[in-house]
TrEMBL record:
Protein family (similarity comment): Belongs to the NAD(P)-dependent epimerase/dehydratase family.
Pfam families: Epimerase (PF01370)
Residue ranges annotated for the NAD-dependent epimerase/dehydratase domain, each copy included: 4-213
PANTHER family: 4-EPIMERASE, PUTATIVE (AFU_ORTHOLOGUE AFUA_7G00360)-RELATED, NUCLEOSIDE-DIPHOSPHATE-SUGAR EPIMERASE
Keywords: NAD, Oxidoreductase
InterPro entries: Epimerase_deHydtase, NAD(P)-bd_dom_sf
Protein name, per record: NAD(P)-dependent oxidoreductase
Amino acid sequence: MRTVAVTGASGKLGTEVVKGLLDQGYQVIALDERRSDQLRCKQIRVNLNDFGQVVAGLAGADAVIHLAAIPAPIDYTNSYIFSNNVLSTYHVLEAASVLGIGKVVTGSSESSYGFCWAPSPFDPHYVPVDEEHPQLPQECYGLSKVVNELTASMFHRRTGMQVMSLRFSLILAPQQYAAFEKDIRNPERHKRILWSYIDIRDAVRACIASLGDLEVRSADLNITSRDTLSDLDTEELLDRYYPEVKDRRRRFTGREAIVSTERAQRVLSWRAEHSWSDTIQR
């Protein structure tokens, strides 16, 4: 496997994934609706809602990293967000099936659990939040990610292709940490995302690790940092902001993340390496 197609290649994560692949010697086909002057590889402008364009764009690829999506339930109508995210993912997986592409990585989201954007906020059923926690979205974006994960699992069952759905938390680049310093010292700000985040460098590593020859060939995986986006210890955060969550399945050490990545560690041999605290003095 030497050629990887990346959808959403001009986006924040897509750009860094392309660079990471190129650094590791892969050939890359960058697919997006717009070209980027940051990418030094073949670029094709593709509308992923047009199946013919998707098949043509993926031709020649050995694997796909599908990151294109409307990234939040804002700026567009609910029906458009849902239909765009679901149809584009179906087209990518169907095209990969038609072309005999054996590996697809899809960008999912922790928003699929429902906490972040819920009109009626609710608490986790238990902590740490692992991949078995119920997905209970109340809006179109989280629902689209749940549907996409089910679609990915269906294609694995039907074709045997290796499909990893990566549930990214808030993706932050090192240069963004300074702007988040006030938020880090204001725990209320990120309560609804369980103070979960992932450094973009670790997100890139997770994408590339998902292309390996894995024993588990279909999985939904939390991809988050090992610590929280807060300067308070995790037990204090839970006591103060989630006192009704009585099902704590283990005790947290220091600022340990509330969202578990144990499955990603087992399946991908991946661990987050970077923290905001490497940049900002606690």
